[in-house]
Automatic annotation (TrEMBL), chains A, B:
<keyword id="KW-0804">Transcription</keyword>
<dbReference type="InterPro" id="IPR009057">
    <property type="entry name" value="Homeodomain-like_sf"/>
</dbReference>
<dbReference type="InterPro" id="IPR050109">
    <property type="entry name" value="HTH-type_TetR-like_transc_reg"/>
</dbReference>
<feature type="DNA-binding region" description="H-T-H motif">
    <location>
        <begin position="34"/>
        <end position="53"/>
    </location>
</feature>
<dbReference type="Pfam" id="PF00440">
    <property type="entry name" value="TetR_N"/>
</dbReference>
<dbReference type="InterPro" id="IPR011075">
    <property type="entry name" value="TetR_C"/>
</dbReference>
<dbReference type="GO" id="GO:0003700">
    <property type="term" value="F:DNA-binding transcription factor activity"/>
</dbReference>
<dbReference type="InterPro" id="IPR001647">
    <property type="entry name" value="HTH_TetR"/>
</dbReference>
<dbReference type="GO" id="GO:0000976">
    <property type="term" value="F:transcription cis-regulatory region binding"/>
</dbReference>
<feature type="domain" description="HTH tetR-type">
    <location>
        <begin position="11"/>
        <end position="71"/>
    </location>
</feature>
<keyword id="KW-0238">DNA-binding</keyword>
<protein>
    <submittedName>
        <fullName>Transcriptional regulator, TetR family protein</fullName>
    </submittedName>
</protein>
<dbReference type="Pfam" id="PF16859">
    <property type="entry name" value="TetR_C_11"/>
</dbReference>
<dbReference type="InterPro" id="IPR036271">
    <property type="entry name" value="Tet_transcr_reg_TetR-rel_C_sf"/>
</dbReference>
<keyword id="KW-0805">Transcription regulation</keyword>
Amino acid sequence: MTQTRPGGRTARTRAAVLTATVDELIETGYAGLSMESVAHRAGVHKATVYRRWGTLEGLLVDALTFFADQSVPTPDTGDIDGDLRELARSALAVLADRTGQALVRAMVSAGHHSQVAQVIRAFWADHTTMVAEIVARAVRRGELPPDTRPADVSRAIGAPLYMRLLVTAEPLDSAAADQAAAAVAAAARAGVFASS
Amino acid sequence: MTQTRPGGRTARTRAAVLTATVDELIETGYAGLSMESVAHRAGVHKATVYRRWGTLEGLLVDALTFFADQSVPTPDTGDIDGDLRELARSALAVLADRTGQALVRAMVSAGHHSQVAQVIRAFWADHTTMVAEIVARAVRRGELPPDTRPADVSRAIGAPLYMRLLVTAEPLDSAAADQAAAAVAAAARAGVFASS
DNA sequence: ATCTGATGCGACGAATCGTTGCATTAAGGG
DNA sequence: CCCTTAATGCAACGATTCGTCGCATCAGAT
């Protein structure tokens, strides 16, 4: 029976290596990431990193699961505009943070790898579930068309913010988040995200 | 006096190398791009590539200017909805094409390099100028609020499409483009992109 | 036809990569 | 407390890649 040892040194090593991974991502990006530099920054021998994670992709996937554990509660402000604004500001909190930026950029750079793609799909599936709840309440209140697609709303909230981070390199401030929320609200009310 | 020779072999070499660059980007992405593989695919010695372009960044910048020369005429369909739909479909044409995808992904991966960032800024400045013309006409027709910000409209059109390409890996079809255009139209009409 | 910029060619030192065998450390059970 | 054995440290390695160099050759341009 092969025993595994989750506690003590193993956990310390994992935390050190994954923290070092993010710090390296912040400084050099995924393109400049190397197993050896991560190991050195973590104060760990490179053979350890190779044995535990194997590849850069494995390192990134573990880092993503390690740092993305904190789940945000579903907003419920009483109207769709407030809920969408809360969602946009949650997204902003991640995308304006150095760690969040580094991880998102790395996800994009490594998005073609199957395991990374799986993490991305899982994230957006969760996000869509959250949005579905908000949309359902808005429909009940008569604020939105009954056949409004949660997935479309989910993507539309984040799109302007990801655009700023990844493409145009424009500032990520609360004004941007609020504008994103307002744009989605207007479009959703107009039935742009309705299936019929 | 140092002479430069733009014609004949020089131009052929440039075309071969830049085409090879894009083909490599399509196959391996910017992360997997190397001067040597580009040279080999172009049927050119690697020293030539190093001498002419120096770095991967230089190669990418030249490839971007080489393939992004075709300018699109400003749409003028008679109403803002039609114009925005045309704009979105033009963006779709680029983002749905293998070459366009490869170049956009590379731009994102190398966006931190100053010259690449400069190309990106120039592109969006041009795009904003085009949108400004469309918005001005729409304002004259009374379709949009007078203080609608062209830059915001410009980004909002592309955002859902870039989101699909870079983040969620969802299909880039005409339905996506039309939805993006409709969402922007609704938001713009509601005054979300107005400065006041 | 001549001049000269551009390219081809091969080789090089340097750096990086991923692996391997063995010694050492420390977690976890008795 | 001791023992077993994961987990890690360590050093070295062959392989590969990287960027540069000197020199020979090719082909525009005049």
